[in-house]
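Design a sequence for this backbone.
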């Protein structure tokens, strides 16, 4: 959430920027709740002062009936005010969480994804002398993808992956862990992009697949209606993406500045309801209810937050380029970057069977919007406390990148060439 003092000082700006992101927020009502909260706090403080004075005066002797009645009245009034304060604070928290993060000035203003900006395009779209097959066709030809039996067992948008496709997925995982753990590669990306960062590798993490409601809400990532599966018997939600249980890791903690940045590369099986996508991407493994994902998550100082975001995008480009996929980088507009984001960048890879670019990666710079509600702070060397800045970014959404490899590396007979960088992780195998 945003700093309430920032909203007090910039009410019109907050309303304007919220509208640019597509959010209708009632800032005057929020500020009225803020004033009501401060008023109740002042009233409570005054009643507590009077109660303490009364208690001190009663120590001298036996209290009279009038004094006892007055004490009871104070206790009742104080209880009523404290109850009222609790209700006001709940409403204020809801109002604050409804206000999106402010987009950076460098974010293009736009009303929808059609106004996103193509920052650059790398590589030429893959062309064939034959009609390219979808991943589903290739998967069925070699018994690599079985959605029919998965639907029988679990319903639509699930799949059994088999054989070499499974091995290819684990090759991608090992490739990412090796690359992001290589300090030399990280340093080269920092130097190429003129970033003021240290060459600290990303540490692998297997996060929980379940998240409690309180930290999930505080992360600004819980979208119960459209995205997330709830475990009805428990106060738990299925992880909708690897970064959701990574960004909440340090909930209510103070991190020493010397430990920052903390860079993680998390791997998790994730689950999404995909409500509202009926009839969309039903072929293949592009959009599934269950998918595996490698996600970068970074906790940093405020001063280095934007550079960490730029490094994450550079890492994404490095991974995609070395796999050998044509791609483009998208600078997302205000209405498309998402509620908690101050800036968002997508990478779209080329899918020959569809004849178009599709999103395979996103990179989100969230500033202190998450850490304020999650109460994740850093203790500076001078002893002061600051909120950390958070970043998350896709390394690989594995289903989507497997689909991209199958389609871009297919041969006329249906076989698929394995990208060279992945062959060492598949025992030197060069073809599926």
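Sequence:
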């Amino acid at each position: 959430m945003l700093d309430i003092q920032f909203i007090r000082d910039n009410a019109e700006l907050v309303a304007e920027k919220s509208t640019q992101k597509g959010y209708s927020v009632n800032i005057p009502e929020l500020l009225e709740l803020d004033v009501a909260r401060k008023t109740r706090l002042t009233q409570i403080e005054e009643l507590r002062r009077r109660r303490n004075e009364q208690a001190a005066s009663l120590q001298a002797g036996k209290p009279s009936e009038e004094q006892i009645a007055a004490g009871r009245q104070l206790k009742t009034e104080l209880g009523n005010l404290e109850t009222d304060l609790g209700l006001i604070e709940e409403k204020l928290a809801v109002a604050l969480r409804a206000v999106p993060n402010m987009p950076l000035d460098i974010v293009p203003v736009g009303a929808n994804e059609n106004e996103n900006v193509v920052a650059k395009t790398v590589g030429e779209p893959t062309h064939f002398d034959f009609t390219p097959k979808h991943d589903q066709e290739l998967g069925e030809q070699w018994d690599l993808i079985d959605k029919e039996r998965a639907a029988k067992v679990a319903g639509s948008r699930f799949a059994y992956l088999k054989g070499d496709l499974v091995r290819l997925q684990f090759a991608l995982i090992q490739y990412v862990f090796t690359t992001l753990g290589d300090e030399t590669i990280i340093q080269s990306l920092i130097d190429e992009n003129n970033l003021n960062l240290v060459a600290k590798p990303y540490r692998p993490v297997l996060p929980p697949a379940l998240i409690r409601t309180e930290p999930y809400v505080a992360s600004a990532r819980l979208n119960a209606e459209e995205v997330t599966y709830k475990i009805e018997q428990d106060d738990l939600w299925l992880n909708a993406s690897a970064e959701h249980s990574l960004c909440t890791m340090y909930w209510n903690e103070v991190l020493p500045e010397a430990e920052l940045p903390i860079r993680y590369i998390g791997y998790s099986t994730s689950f999404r309801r995909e409500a509202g996508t009926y009839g969309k991407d039903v072929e293949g493994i592009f959009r599934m209810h269950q998918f595996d994902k490698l996600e970068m998550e970074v906790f940093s100082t405020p001063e280095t937050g934007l550079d960490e975001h730029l490094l994450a995008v550079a890492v994404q480009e490095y991974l995609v380029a070395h796999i050998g996929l044509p791609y483009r980088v998208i600078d997302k507009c205000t209405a498309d970057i998402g509620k908690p984001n101050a800036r968002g960048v997508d990478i779209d890879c080329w899918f020959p069977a569809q004849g178009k670019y599709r999103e395979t990666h996103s990179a989100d710079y969230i500033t202190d919007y998450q850490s304020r509600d999650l109460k994740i702070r850093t203790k500076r060397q001078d002893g002061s406390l600051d909120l950390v800045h958070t970043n998350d970014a896709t390394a690989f959404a594995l289903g989507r990148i497997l689909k991209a490899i199958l389609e871009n590396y297919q041969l006329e007979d249906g076989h698929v060439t394995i990208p060279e960088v992945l062959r060492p992780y598949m025992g030197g195998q060069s073809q599926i």
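The two ends are 48 Å apart (CA to CA).
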